[in-house]
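#structure-requests
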Amino acid sequence: MIIIGIDPGSRFCGYGLLEIEGRKIIAAGCDVINVLKGKDLLERLELLYNAINDILKECEPDIAVVESIFYHKQIRSVFTLGQARGVILLALAQKNIPLVEYSPREVKKAVVGNGNASKQQVRYMVNKILNLHNKPVQDDAYDALGLALCHYNRIRFA
C-alpha cells in the first residue's frame, strides 16, 4: 500500500509518500512542489495541478491524506489555500484515489503527541520515526509526511 500525504499550499505544496507492507513502513520520502515560478495565481494553480498529476501517475498511491482547512486571520490566505486545495482534490478525484482529511492539530497529536507542537517538533519526530536519508529543507515536506504517518497510525491501530 502506498499512502501519499499532501500539505496544500499556494507557494509550496508538500507531499510525502509511505510504502507499507503488512504493518511495516518499508520506504518513505518527501519533497515540495515549488509553485512560486508562476507569475500569477492562475499560473501557480496550473503548475500545482500538473505537478500533482505527475506525482500521482508516477507513484500510484492507494490513498491520499490531505490537510483540512484551518482558520486563519488572513482571509485572503484562506481563499488562496482553498483554491490550491481544490486543484489537489480535483486531481485525486480524476484518478479515483480515496481521500482522508486530518486537521493540523490531529497530525501533530499523532506524530508528536501534542496537538500544539511546533513545526520544528514535527520535523524532528518525522526524522526520528522514519530515519530519512535525504532530508528536505522545507517544513511543508515534513508536514506532508506527518499527514501520511497520522493515517498510517490510524489504520495500523484500527
